[in-house]
Amino acid sequence: MNLLGKIFTVLIFIMSLVFMSFAVAVYSTHKNWRELVLLTSEEAHKAGKPLGLKWQLENAKKLQEELENQLTKLKGELDAEKAARQNDVSKLKTELAEMKQTNKTLEEAIKEVTIEKNKATQTLGEVTALNKKLSDDTSDLWQKWMEAKKERDEISSRLTTATVQLRQAEGELARLKDKLRQVSDQYADALGVLQLFGLNPDPDYYKVAAVQGLVTAVRANGLVEISIGSDDGLRKGGILRVIRADGSMYLGQIEVLETQPDRAVCRIVPGSQQGAIQPGDKVRSDLSDVLTSAN
């Protein structure tokens, strides 16, 4: 082998080393993308590697679905809690009215007992004066004095009974005042709960007359004029339902913007319209619509 052959042999050996180095570097940085995406939980546990991206995504979707179900459940519980609080407020108001009526009755009874006590005191004074007079009279008047004393004893007994009844009534009045104070505190707490949930504490706010009328005109800007107004019990912010004149189709909801005695101007509630509203269609309201609007 001549010198040139030896040179080429050395060059080939050097290039082989270089290419081998490149091959080792490429192999060390190689990733199995199929394994990274599709590796199952059992395979990942055996290989000591993370779960495949596909299964991680499915687990994340399942977790999201569970969280959404929990959110829906919590919303339902919140609505039930609101309804329970409204019922509690109604019961407390009823109890308060009953306590006021009972308090009024007791006050009248105390007034009557007081009048009886004053009469008895006056009678006792008269009997005492008569007793002194009879003591100074002769023996002929002794029998009359004994009868007067007996009458005085009876009046004293009635006075004692009336005094006991008065004390009992005063104790009952004090107890009822404490009860009224407790009910007032509970009523204040209930009002605080209503304000916390953004509810109107005025019961008259939820009293809406069931009205029925007709659509008289439909404006181009989405406003609707109807044939009923404030004289019929409508007020600003009320919600009405619109149905076709023959009752064949539910058309949507409208909100009262402006009222006059015999007419009102409304707007179509966004997202509620299910058909074209036209003159002659019927409108009506009920309590469920008003409660929905208030909430």
Provide a compact summary of the structure.
63% of the residues lie in helices and 12% in strands.
Blueprint of the fold:
Elements: H1 3-28, H2 33-38, H3 41-47, H4 53-136, H5 142-196, E1 212-218, E2 223-226, E3 239-243, E4 250-260, E5 263-268, E6 282-284, H6 287-294
Antiparallel strand pairs: 1-2, 1-6, 2-5, 3-4, 3-6, 4-5
Characteristic terms for this protein:
6 helices, disordered C terminus, 295 residues, 12% strand, alpha+beta
Structure write-up:
The chain is of the alpha+beta class and 295 residues long. Helix content is 63%, strand content 12%. It has 6 helices and 6 strands. The protein has a 6-stranded antiparallel β-barrel. Helix 4 runs antiparallel to helix 5. The protein is elongated, with a radius of gyration of 46 Å. Mean pLDDT is 81; it is low at 287-295.
Q: Mean of residue pLDDT?
A: 81
Write down the overall geometry: elongated
Count all strands and give the number.
6
Report the β-strand fraction as a percent range: 5-15%
Give the structural class: alpha+beta
CA radius of gyration is 46 Å
Q: Calculate the terminal CA-CA distance, rounded to whole Å.
A: 101 Å
**What is the chain-wise order of helices and strands?**
HHHHHEEEEEEH
Describe the sheet with the most strands: 6 strands, antiparallel, barrel
Strand order of the largest sheet: 1-2-5-4-3-6
Number of discrete helical segments: 6
Catalogue the unreliable spans. 287-295
Helix content: 55-70%
